[in-house]
Amino acid sequence: MLRSRLATDLGRLALNLRFAWYGPTRAVFEELDPVAWERTGHDPVRLLEQCGDQLDAAARRPGYAARVQDAAEELATYLDADDTWYARSGGDASRVVAYYSAEFALADCLHTYSGGLGVLAGDHLRSASDLGIPLVGIGLAYRDGYFLQRLDASGWQHAEPARNDFHRAPVSPVVGADGQRLTVEVPIGDGRVVAQAWHVAVGRISLYLLDTDVEANLPHHRDITGQLYGGDDDLRLRQELVLGVGGARLLEALGVEVAVHHLNEGHAAFAGLERLRTHLRAGADLPAAIEQVRRELVFTTHTPVPAGHDEFGWDLAAYHLGPLAGELQVDFPALWQLATAPGEERWSQTVLALALAGRANGVARLHGEVSRRMWARLWPDRAVDDVPIGHVTNGVHPGLWVGPELAALFDARLGDDWRAGEGPAVWQDVAKIEPAMLWGTHVRARRRLVGEARDRLATQRRRLGVGTDGRGLDPDALTIGFARRFATYKRATLLAHDLDRLAAILGDDERPVQVLVAGKAHPRDDAGKHLIQHLVGLSRDPRLKGRLVFLEGYDLDLARSLVAGVDVWLNNPLRPLEASGTSGMKAAMNGVLNLSILDGWWDEAVADLAPHAEVGFGWAIGDREEGGDEHARAAADADALYRLLAEQLVPTFYDRDHDGVPHRWVTMMRDAIGLLAPTFSTHRMVGDYVTGAYRLVPARSEAV
Ligand SMILES: *Cc1c(COP(=O)(O)O)cnc(C)c1O
């Protein structure tokens, strides 16, 4: 009896991804079998498969069954709540938003993301759930996610497949009224591609992942959802047709009436064509149908880096889009014109999305400006400031990103509201937390991180036979984190610009400093792989005393430990190429101080909020310089970085009172949490989308 109740409760908890961001639920899975929890990559479905015969013992463990039952009841209450932020603010529950994204970071066990875009999309769903927004997600069910990173003895990155097995994951097949798998068809080049779908419960939100690995498809179409960002332009185009057209058709097949389609990046732009088809079929002519689509389409652009904007040549586009153009009864050249900038001969997903969206935005204030300049050529008769691209600054989800040590402190001192509540008032009481308490909590997070880093490094050294084993790391040293994709504009090796100066800062035995680095280079980006190799080489350089280490396999799990456990988060991109950046927001929510170039979110954080700080919540490297010679820029930025470290960070961190607490530093930590957490939360961001875009789509002339 007890056992079956326990199995039912655990099964329910396993099938809702809220476990991934709600610590108390995650804890009941971990407690069931900590070793199996690690071995399954934090997959509760496989955990329960493997631990079936342990349930009797678990049911007899003091308090366990009660904790599971509490968690199950808490989830049921969460799912049923009707006093959500959206309801309280007069939101219309029937105005459903469809949110399309090529990647979603959902849980450690689902390899359905590559980096920041996916993390943002996942946090968007998590906050939409917490705030009660009527939203459904659309994505792709990749058989292989973005790769697992393995370094060889020389520090060269190798890519191993990151397999998804949707039959043994916290997802369910989508079936129709007849009990059979529901499918949709997408016209593509040489045939019709059939896609089935998987349902993922993300709290209150339903996410549907389309999957072309079905028997009815030709082999090369079965493989469309074979790999995240794999293959060439041909595959990318077919993936995007499945995402955009297949996604919109799936929602129709499910009977979901969508008021707003939100395209997270140009990957999903074909959803606009599918909406166009619907309005044309209802009798509108092309200009009228475009106007109608604009009333329901929101588009977010995510990068000023040209390679981040998908483009296709005429032949490829004409071939694959020909059948869809036929269904629209529009000549292909008319579509081509919609998707190409004046005088350019490439189909651009961004141009198409901008042509069809009633609301378009960048992801930070500065990125909004940069995007208006970048796309001004599409509106030759307008001043740059009047280009209709606004901004909604990104955020991160507090429940997912605040580490367990601090989360427990927040639970005790801020009440539940910090997880799901919106607005600065929620975070006000951070100012009342005693410095020694906040510091002690952070030190525990740092010590856990250093322990995990040592374990990872020791395992890596056993495998490779060379490298540091992490003994150079000190759990009490000033710890700097740098983790991100190894795109060249992020300048991962800037800190090592002048090795003597770096060695002098790290090597002081009285006031040690250490650096933890992580990140993946794209499998085809050899320049990025060389940067990783260079850093791995430095980790073995005796001058740095083992105080700079490279941690393999950057992912959600490692990111969570890093942003909670380091003291400083370093960010040194080439301004203005970091559209927003979100890892620094995760760090700030954990009281970690940012040391960053004034780019992306940090530019506006410093401009708007630094004046309200008691002491300050971090440091700016340089002063908004842009352009010029890249080498000179790097030398100047590195110089500023070393000066800040030596003259400000190290002295402040090691200036301790008689209790060993660095008072000024802790005041900065409180400023970071109190001022930055409410603003750079996805609760604020999703709220901005609701009030500034979802409710008001048809406002082409104004920016968001
Ligand atoms: C947050 C996050 C990112 C994005 O970080 P940026 O600061 O935008 O570079 C990338 N990868 C993972 C695993 C993350 O958690």
From TrEMBL:
Which BP terms in the Gene Ontology apply to this protein? carbohydrate metabolic process
Catalytic activity annotation: [(1->4)-alpha-D-glucosyl](n) + phosphate = [(1->4)-alpha-D-glucosyl](n-1) + alpha-D-glucose 1-phosphate
- Superkingdom of origin organism: Bacteria
Q: Which residues carry this modification: N6-(pyridoxal phosphate)lysine?
A: K586
Q: What is its EC number?
A: 2.4.1.1
GO MF entry, a single one: pyridoxal phosphate binding
Matching InterPro entries, A to Z? Agluc_phsphrylas, Glyco_trans_35, Glycogen/Maltodextrin_Phosph, Glycogen_phosphorylase_DUF3417, Pyridoxal_P_attach_site
Q: Which UniProt keywords apply?
A: Allosteric enzyme, Carbohydrate metabolism, Glycosyltransferase, Pyridoxal phosphate, Transferase
| Chain ranges of the DUF3417 domain | 9-110
Needed cofactors, names only, are: pyridoxal 5'-phosphate
> What does this protein's UniProt record list under function?
Phosphorylase is an important allosteric enzyme in carbohydrate metabolism. Enzymes from different sources differ in their regulatory mechanisms and in their natural substrates. However, all known phosphorylases share catalytic and structural properties.
The family this protein is said to belong to:
Belongs to the glycogen phosphorylase family.
> What is the recorded name of this protein?
glycogen phosphorylase
The organism of origin for this protein: Egicoccus halophilus
The root-end lineage is: Bacteria, Bacillati, Actinomycetota, Nitriliruptoria, Egicoccales
